[in-house]
Fold each of these.
Amino acid sequence: MDAAAAVEQPEDLERRFAGGDLDAFETLFRRHQAEVLGWIVRIVRDAALAEDATIETFWRIYRARARFDPRREFGPWARRIATNVAIDFLKAKPREIGGLDVAEMPVDPQPTRDRSVTEAIRMAFRQLPAKLQAAASLALIEEESNAEIAAALGISVAAVKSRVHRAVGLLRRNLRRLQITP
Amino acid sequence: MKPTENELREMLRQALPPVQPDHAVDLWPRMLRRLDERNTRIGWADRILLLLISLGLILFPAIIPQLLYQL
């Protein structure tokens, strides 16, 4: 057998994974773990939560293996599942990361850019609905392109722009309520 | 005063700095535990089926010999 034939083709690996081969799944897990974790942490912005979400992502990937088309790339498929998981985690654990409700926050008459203001901005962000928070995190903080966000969310570029626009509107309203200005 | 989008971006970046995940952590052992956990867990549908079969055998014990004969 020549060396070229001995090297496993990516498509073979993905075909074996789709057929339920645990070794192939482990190889894909190790190959894509860092990328998935890195993507999720950009959405949930919490390292421990991102690790849990990464496990959940690969669990969903493993469960959906029969639906995976080995001719398609594994990475973008995994990223899309990871994005859905991250949004589910934001929905399930908003208070764990957030804290008080914006409406419950005491209003400082002369806010300065100190710790409490930073905390208030963070809270205003965490008050956004999960889908808007994910889009805003990727677009406004991480500066990912709209096309990339659209692919990860499984929506159109126009829908991404709409989500970011709505997120900006809500953030402005929340910040105004807290009397926080740039 | 309403912050511009760029000002808003800046405020968010300061309040929510990048989080660095620990890429050195091997998550595969946790993944394996998760797979084992799910494989050994009995689902609700299976539990209900088991309950119905048990109830059937208790209420109609006469079917037991017939079942054994079929086996």
Amino acid sequence: MDLFLFLTFALIAVGCAVNLVVQRHPISSALSLIGVMVSLAVLYLLLGAEFIAAIQVIVYAGAIMVLFLFVIMLLNAGVEERTRKSKLVRGLGLPLFAILLCQLAYLAYRHFGSADRVQFGKFIGSTAQIGRALFRDYVLPFEVTSVLILVAILGAVVLARKEIS
Amino acid sequence: MSPGGVPLSWYLVLSAILFGLGVAGFLFKRNIITMFMSLELMLNAVNLSFVAFSYKWGQIGGHLFVFFVIVVAAAEAAVGLAIIISVFRNRGTLNPDDLEAMKL
């Protein structure tokens, strides 16, 4: 069952990610990115991270992607134009990408083998635990994050406002 | 070691694949918004690695890192999209090839 769920959602994630790269209209890319994020949320649940799975859906797939879709709609972004790719890139790009992935996969296998197994049911990141760690050991980063968000809000307002002459 | 379950390395390989696709999208796309989305894809791939390692060592630190990454990604998306709006208003294009005013 674990294997079935993992393979299903991993295939959905990879398929959506490929679709993101291949599609030429930004709206299609954004929708496939939402697909990637939702399937990653299911994988987080399989890894026992219920809080992360929840905020992945709420913050990433909900808030951030709505912001993206809103900007795409606002700018009325059309189909991107095709660029002239060099023959070298067209010939070497995919094989080199495949080689890089094979190397990474080999490294992951060599370090972790197949002895380490992930089984659904071992929840280590409950909301209570995360809250306790966040407000006890990570209070300073948490507070600094609030300053960061404040700066980001101010920056977004200043950058996106219309100049009044 | 239990017979059931999925090997941990599969999660890491999935994370590597998603990260690679994000890099490819960032390099090949010719639209700033889509390049930005590829960036988000890379962040997501790294988050998956964090959660997988957190599971392996039974530590909660990985989850907190993912939490902070998501917060920073939200701030980055707000500022980045504001920059994109501002660039589009001034230049009228989303193609990074046409945005070369600062090129020497």
